[in-house]
Amino acid sequence: MATVGKVIKCKAAVIWEVGKIPSIEEVEVAPPRSHEVRVKIVATGICRTDYHVLKGFFPKLDYPVIAGHEGAGIVESIGPGVTCVKPGDKVIPLCLPQCGECSCCRSPKDNCCLKNHFCERPQNLMPDQTSRFTCKGKQIHHFLWMSTFSEYTVMPDVSIVRIDDNAPLDKVCLLGCGFPTGYGAAINTAEVKPGSSCAIFGLGGVGLSIIMGCKAAGASRIIGIDINKDKFAKAKELGATECLSPDDFKKPINEVLVEMTGLGVDYTFEAIGLVETVTAALASSHLGHGVCVVVGEPPAGSHLSVDPVQLITGRKLLGCCMGGFRLKDAIPKLVSEYMEKKFNLDALRSHVLPFEKIGEGFELLCSGKSIRSVLLY
Asked: N or C of the chain: less Cβ packing under 10 Å?
């Protein structure tokens, strides 16, 4: 290819400083180095985590930065030592790396590779602590080693996986974050049992994916909870048996749920990212055996206060990272299952916009009018 080994100039959305809407700029993208891959991104979703980047929720993140982490594309070139993909392959970047060598990757109990941004230094730069992006003579930082809000991006080979050559990239890009996070929370982390009751706090893309997971697991009662009633129809379409808005009740929603279900809900899921709703979700779970799964990501520095009696009496509070999936192993299988129509991923794609309308996509997200906006280059 004519671009191999050369700097590529392309368009990207740069967040120059906290609070500033991403600005469409021409950036230079350097060639991949050892164990790195340069990818032409075809489609990328806008996730609330990207909004968190915009608002400065991650105090260790450096600016200017190119966000975006829910994408799909085609390998343009590879650096020395890369064996997992080749130029021309369709790929999905991974929010959660899978190096295959650390103690977590070697453990059958774990999916939280030690190269992730929680354990190592933040993934604002490549592993060698340099950037592949420049704009207007300035270094631009990466985000989660992915930065899918750039037409071309570079990432380590531990953070990418090859998928089926026939996969529609404008649709399977959603398998990069939101869907596996929610679906896996029900299937893998909670291990929802047939005939059980479930309550999902937050009916965005992740919450709706949790609903699909609960339905696939055979739950008989699936309660969706959100203050935005416009989301109820989609939730019921995907498997919710009923939906509630906390604003419709004079008492706390956890008390409402306990009264509705007797002693509480078998499985509760928090998919908003607020400690207040985590507390409500735990209090809603069934005395003696209830399971509460924390899926949403609260702002950095948040602290959760829990009444230990709720745990002593048998409830379980669980954390969930990317749905418990080992992403290099799981995403190709999820792509195949989507193509076999085993789940309705398309229902999450509410808007499709040209990349230049990324600002409109963020407005749709913030106003609660979108589930997932997909940007096409």
From this structure: N
Helices (H) and strands (E) in the chain — how many of each? 11, 17
**Angstrom distance (rounded) from CA 125 to CA 141:** 6
Q: Which residue has the higher pLDDT, 258 or 60?
A: 258
pLDDT tens digits, one per residue of 320-371 = 999 999 999 999 999 999 999 999 999 999 999 999 999 999 999 999 899 9
- Evaluate whether 189 touches 216 at the Cβ level (below 8 Å): no
Which residues are CB-contacts of 280 (< 8 A; sequence separation ≥ 6)?
201, 252, 253, 254
Read off the tokens for 120: 């190592």
Output 241-247 pairs: Cβ under 8 A, ≥24 positions apart.
243/203
CB atoms within 10 A of CB 246: 16
Instruction: Spell out the long-range contacts of 296-300 with Cβ–Cβ below 8 A and sequence spacing 24 or more.
Output: 296/202, 296/206, 296/270, 296/271, 296/272, 297/49, 297/52, 297/273, 298/273, 298/274, 299/52, 299/57, 299/273, 300/57, 300/58, 300/59, 300/60
Rounded Cα–Cα distance for residues 84 and 264 (Å): 46
Two tokens at 286? 């069934």
- ∠ CA 315-118-190, nearest 5°, is 25
Task: Please give the single-letter amino acid code of residue 263.
Answer: L
pLDDT tens-digit series, residues 129-187 = 999 999 999 999 999 999 999 999 999 999 999 999 999 999 999 999 999 999 999 99
